[in-house]
Amino acid sequence: MAFEELLNDPVIQKYLHELVGPEGMPVAAAPPEGEVTDEELAEELDLELNDVRRALFILYENDLASYRRVRDEDSGWLTYLWTFHYDNIPENLEEEMERLLAALEEREEYERTHEFYLCEVCSIRFEFGDAMDQGFQCPECASPLESMDNDDLVGAMEQRLNTLREELNADIHAEAD
């Protein structure tokens, strides 16, 4: 997929924004073809050099950019030439979705297998054991703790899990085609 197509996708724009933040977004949103130095990017985008370097290193840590070092023979200074690799974005997003799926499955299991109590005054939630330790009274305001029905939360988590599973299967089937 070409840079332009990727960068027009709102999901990918949000992903890049989450990675590099608002200061680094101009760097992420304007990947040049071929190699470029951090100084050239800073000048071209009219950004602080530190903001450009921070964004480049974040992209590097996420396998979306690479660099090679070149030593100036006269001065001995190192120059870093950066190349962008946005073809890795779909794979990175799929890995993020799989991590989200695992975390959500774990949380849904926790919600489903525990009993909770709520202080309706302070909106503090307690597991059964903690509520029992408190004598079923809120430690903040001494109000009674009421049994909490979290079926709606578990149901919403199950719906989100099903959606994620469908999206991941669709991605796997699309890659096989």
Topology:
Blueprint: H1 3-8, H2 10-29, E1 36-37, H3 38-45, H4 49-61, E2 65-71, E3 78-84, H5 89-113, E4 116-119, E5 124-127, H6 128-133, E6 146-148, H7 151-176
Antiparallel strand pairs: 1-3, 2-3, 4-5, 4-6
GO molecular function: DNA binding
Keywords: DNA-binding, Transcription, Transcription regulation
Domain HTH TFE/IIEalpha-type: 8-90
Question: Can you offer a commentary on this structure?
Answer:
- This protein has 177 residues and is α+β, with helices and mostly antiparallel strands.
- 59% of the residues lie in helices and 15% in strands.
- The protein has helices at residues 3-8, 10-29, 38-45, 49-61, 89-113, 128-133, 151-176, and strands at residues 36-37, 65-71, 78-84, 116-119, 124-127, 146-148.
- It has a three-stranded antiparallel β-sheet. A three-stranded antiparallel β-sheet has the order 5-4-6.
- α2 (10-29) packs across α4 (49-61) and α3 (38-45) crosses α4.
- Mean pLDDT is 88; it is low at 172-177.
- This is Transcription factor E.
- Keywords: DNA-binding, Transcription, Transcription regulation.
- Residues 8-90 form the HTH TFE/IIEalpha-type domain.
- GO terms for molecular function: DNA binding.
